[in-house]
Amino acid sequence: MAMKLVHEEYLKLSGRTSIINLIVLLVFHLNVILIDNGSSASVMISSTQTTTRRRIIDHEFKVGVVLDLKLPITKVWLTSMNMALSDFYSYTKTSRKRRLVLHVADSNADILDASFAAINLIQNDEVQAIIGPMTSAEAIYMLHLGKKTQIPIISFTATSPSISPSRNPYFIRTTHQDSSQVDAIASVVKTFKWREVVPIYEDTEYGNGVIPYLIDAFHSISTRVPYRSVLPESANDDRILQELYKLMTMQTRVFILHMTTPLGVRIFEKAKSIGMMSKGYVWIVTDGLGDYLSSFNSSVLAKMQGVIGIRRYVHKSSKLSSFKSRWKKKFRKDNPDIKKSLDIYGILAYDTIWLLANAIEKFEALDSRFVKQNVGENSSSHVARLGISQIGPKLLHEISNIKFEGLSGDFGLVDRQLHVHTFHILNVFGNGVREIGIWTPSDGIIKDISLSGTREDQYLLPAHDNLHRIIWPGNTTAIPKGWINPTGEKKLRIGIPVRSSYTEFVKVTRNPSSNDSADVTGYCIDVFNAAIGMLPYAVTYEFIPFQNANHTAAGTYNDLIYQVYLQNFDAVVGDVTITANRLQYVDFTLPYVEAGASMIVLTRKDLNKETLIFFLPLEWRLWMTIVAFFVYIGSVIWILEHRGNQEKVLSSPGRFVMILWILAVFILTASYTASYSAMLMANRFQPTFSDVNLLIKNGYNVGYRNGSFIQGMLKQMGFDESNLKGYGTPEECDEAFSRKRQDGGIVAAFDELPYIELLLAQYCDKYTKVGDIYPTGGFGFVFPKGSPLGLDISRTILSVREDKEKMKRIRNAWLESKRSCSDHDSLGSSYGLTLYSFRYLFVFVGVLSLIPLLADLLNFLYKNRIILTCPNTSISQKIVRLVEKFNEEDEKRLRYYEYHAGIGSQTVAGEDTE
User: Fold this and answer.
1) Least confident piece of the model among 270-279, 301-310, 407-416
2) Whole-angstrom Cα distance, residue 46 to residue 419?
3) Cβ atoms within 10 A of the Cβ of 52, count?
């Protein structure tokens, strides 16, 4: 291809150009041939050959490359770029219209030198694009140059998100920005439920740029960042050790390392030497180190055992494998003294050259002119003298729209930067690095890319099962809990309130054998022990009463809580109410006791209702049914008895019906008595007051429990402070109710529901709860701000509360056992017994009473069958005759009853005579 171009140019110039120009042209095409063979693409053209250069300008596109040429890694990238040129122009499927030429300059690892190198490339070589501000700091300076001259500045290594293409129209990023990996890191943290992490990063544009995005990602999963560890890029060993020792004194054991390779490796060396690569620690490195984990030698990896790394995912393909093989041979040939392997940026450098080469093929003609700006001769602006590229805007447009299949996969820019959505999750173990999972935005963490799209199935597994087995620091497979007590292996110091009342919640009993130790029991203690026992890891702790030398309370509940803020206690367990003011200093767990406060008052009889309560034990329909049955039973007995006697019930059927009814009346009477007694008892619990506003308006005294936040709540409600009377125990509260107003007596008391429940259990026939339930935070356990243990305890509290049997046992042990009388609320909840309750009784009596009635009726009809069979009478005459016959006295039956009655009388008289 190169020889063909030489021949065509020779025919055009023969007869019209001088021998000197022809020689220059041949020299130029000789350089082109060298490019096709993979050699350096730099082309130097003498300024004296202006005429010839204009003739070939349409075939040449100059691109500047600014890199630190002293770094071995730079040679890795240059090899990839030269191979990209060779591959692109040797690609036989498409003929090429023009040639991309690279002009390489040295940045000397200096921001200003990099900028000057770019200026020189524009001024002397008239390059139309610049590749390679290596660092984000270099890119920031060079971006201004691109904006002034309209020359695209293309970087495949500047990853800081602080450099935004949207704010820099001539900046193109052919790599991913660091913020694209923060969700992958947050997913790893979320998977293992770590609630605190500490980022460690270098104080450079690269280090600082990603931190806001990282913090936001952790915030979205409710993970706290209590501290940020920042190290200068030039930190010496003492400075590194100083920072690491500081981290060791903290609770957090999960560290996110975002650094370039030299400083990152040194940190792991020092961390290993002081024991921070042991069991319990978690180290996660971003792709700044993650991309190079596979290239580290065994001595470096030995200091990074158990580290989790994030690395951009690159799809494995035959094209990439072939390139790696060819690259390795060429690099060894060109750089026999350098031992380096192809990295991700070498792959991106290759794709960047293909991107540019494809873009310039879109042009029908290349106009490489720079239009000088209108500046005075005495202007000191060197940038202004460079001029403005005429091809720059169109080139920017073409680059933004090119899409092709590169070595790194589908290569296409979105908003002038490469977007990456998939990352490898790596684990350092032994002498190598293992891939333990893949992260994608749609699937989250999965074991293998082949599982992409099966997110629904992944939810069926525990989160950490979506990863292959991980070897953590300390050569263990046990998942680190992510934090540790700041005092090392010492027990957690848990403060306990000391009180003389309401000891059902917390009770401190001194050990007779030792005044220094105490037994701590109570409802709150049992709930805490149950919650901490459900943690997936062991926590040792001891209860320490907050008391003076004489074993009395050392202060109020606020004083006790403040001890956690002062770090004198690691936690507080007790009947501590969650309030907004306390949350300014400490954190609380989720409440483990129902929230709310209410009012209690004395009960009294309602005399107006007393006159009507007689009818309420039985429902009106039941009353009506009883009356109807009285009439019915009376009628049945009259039918059975009126023909044989006039006073007593003497017949067996009559007596049978009477016994049935007496039984039914006895049952009804007993039920009525019980219901009426319950009504009388329930009626006693009518509240003396129910309107809080009435208490405030009339200036009545009300009580509150000493030391509680209820006093402040009552003031906010509008009670005058002079009307607020404190009490300490339920007995003191009861005494305050019994005193007169002028003696400090109260007509109502306000307290939280758990305390009200205990008071009513002791005085259930004397007080009642009335009015609204005022919202409160409930009881919670106290921990320092951001404590990961507090968050874990909150989760287990939910499990404890959902275990109904366990909570019932704890409640019965401490609260229900204190109840001295039955629950009166249920007694007044019903107005009496209903007909439904006695339906079977009435059916039973009604059916059985019909049997003798029907038997007697049949017997009567049988005896008077002549009347029924008389042929000469009508039906109406027969009925009238039967009724007349029924109303006649049965002389035979009457004599029978009188005879038996007489015998009975004689027998009784004879017995009396004897």
Assistant:
1) 407-416
2) 41
3) 22
